Amino acid sequence: MRNLEGKLRLLAVALAAAAVAACGGESGSSEQQKITGTISLGAGARVCVDRNLNLQCDAGDPAARADAEGRYEILVDVGLDVSQHLLVAEPAGGKAAEGQPHRLATWAGWSNELNVLNTLVASQVLSRSAADANAAYGDIVRTFGLAEGVSLSATWASIEPVAQVALREAIDAAREQSGTEGYSASVVTKASLALIESLSRYVDGSTGQLLPAATAYFVKTDVRGTLGLELCLVPEVHRMNIVTEGGAPVLDKENDVKALIGLQGADGVTQAENLGAKIRGRGNSTWGMPKKPFRLMLDASAGLLGMTSGRQWTLLANYADKTLLRNEVAFCLARTLGMPYTPQSRMVELVFNGEYLGQYQLSNRTDELEVELKAQAMKEGVNTAAPLSEFNDVFLIEIDERLDSHFWFRTETSIPYAMQTDSDSEQTARVARWFNHLEDVLRDRSVVDRMGRVSQYIDLESLIDFSLVNELLKNNDVFFSSTSMYRSLPDGRLIFGPVWDFDIAAGNNNTTNFVQHPHGWYLPERFNGWYFNTLMEEQSFRFLREARWKYLSSQMRRVDRFVEQAAAAMGASQTRNFERWPILDQWVWPNAVVLGSHEAEVRYLRDWMTERASWMDQNIGE
């Protein structure tokens, strides 16, 4: 069927060209033929016959501009065999509009419609992955796993808008990877081949359409990883010096102590000195451990060690995590999924009032997000009393059973929420009312399009990504504490993340055999996670989660390599840390194993994650 479809296309193009030639072309001359078609880039786009197959409209290439309806008409010599050449489209003015790709292409002998599908077909042939356009189309259909009788050409119009956004992202990523600024054939082809693989995860093989609720966000973040971009920074170890006023100790989590901060890069070059700050303790169970975590508030916003500028910083001690890496692994997974506002962090060796305290993890946690939300809150009409239908509040909130925030509430289903951004009792009451309404929406199974209804309130893709990071690592704290989500404008939906607090995850917890073992689903056991569990009743949500897992699973070898390289980069730093804190052969709450060396701890983490990912591969479709 598909071979016949391709042959009929070729015949139609040949007959059209012959008819035009017989009529003498646009000018009535027998020396020219007319090529007509459509382009999805819209009015003003330049379309040319790419005679040297470089995906560029070079000087001398026959060309024309698309009209207001995206139609184009090019006159070429009758002697030119257009079936052997590409048609290439460049955006008007040479710069693509937001969400549009920088290039589109098609084989003139295959189709004169310039869209992303035909660009993928053309790239398959240019890369020699397929002998001709017909074979390339068949390969794409097979990669997408389409059922017999499903025509990708017929269903493509529904995919094109998402594919355009994703192709643009793919081309930009391929340029970044290659270090070039242009749109060469190699860049566009590489981007297109990656996009084929990425799209295949989100297309429903039975219909030839995107999975319900799948958007450009999933596809464009997928394609960056598929291209092989380095999404996780191997942590060099820097040096940090903190001197408090009068040498005062940090005694608790409530009282600030004035301090000056100095930073040296891993190369020994001074990055900052005499930064004014206030320091206090932080953490819950971790504050009770010998190696204390800290919270820093700089006197003025600053970007530390290349991270985004901010005032609030966290020093994680990672005392119970003898790899010193689990939090960084969680951040790596979140970055692989493209989760917004994933905390940045750097490893530092901390000297406090002249005393060496070991290796810490310096992070800006949610500071960047909080700054953005604070700016939104200052706009007129935001965070003001309004009917529920016009709810306009922005906030960062956290599920936290400890409820140690100034403003907090429990919903009607007893989920404990603590406000994390500046708030007051009036806003807290408004937010509580909105969450109770959200829970009513989630519990209403009578709605025909339940997923569509829920997606008006929750960014479902963020929930899926958040759930996968926590499920993969079996994070003991998820839906108990440190479970963040936020609402910002203009989107106005609840977004899950950023991820945080994974030091006793990934097999580093012996409180139950279930949480320690790499097998078994974990999130369904969490009561406060019923939002996720009730959505798992919906087939479309399960399919989308399965598609997203397939992408993350495809990246697990790279994540494992990151863990290996990150551990090696610590080198002498981790040795000094465990000389200061000689616990490698001691049990520390809630360790699942005591292995005696940093190398063995890292190997345990890597093996645990490999087995966990393998189990999820085998069971994700259940």
How do you describe this structure in short?
By secondary structure, this protein is an alpha+beta fold.
Molecular structure report:
The chain has 622 residues and is α+β, with helices and mostly antiparallel strands. Among the domains are: 2-226, no CATH class; 237-365, no CATH class. 37% of the residues lie in helices and 19% in strands. It has a seven-stranded mixed β-barrel. Strands 18-19-17-20-21 form a five-stranded antiparallel beta sheet. β15 (345-352) and β16 (355-363) form a beta hairpin.
Question: Helix and strand layout, with pairings?
Answer:
Blueprint: H1 2-22, E1 32-39, E2 46-50, E3 63-65, E4 71-77, E5 86-90, E6 104-107, E7 113-114, H2 116-126, H3 133-143, H4 152-178, H5 185-200, E8 203-204, E9 209-210, H6 216-226, E10 237-244, E11 257-264, E12 270-281, E13 294-302, E14 310-316, H7 326-336, E15 345-352, E16 355-363, H8 367-377, E17 395-399, E18 408-410, E19 416-419, H9 425-443, H10 450-454, H11 460-472, E20 483-487, E21 494-496, H12 513-516, H13 530-535, H14 539-554, H15 556-570, H16 572-580, H17 598-619
Parallel strand pairs: 1-7, 10-15
Antiparallel strand pairs: 1-4, 2-3, 2-5, 5-6, 8-9, 10-11, 11-12, 12-13, 13-14, 14-16, 15-16, 17-19, 17-20, 18-19, 20-21
Helix pairs in contact: 1-3, 2-3, 2-5, 4-5, 4-6, 5-6, 6-14, 11-14, 15-17
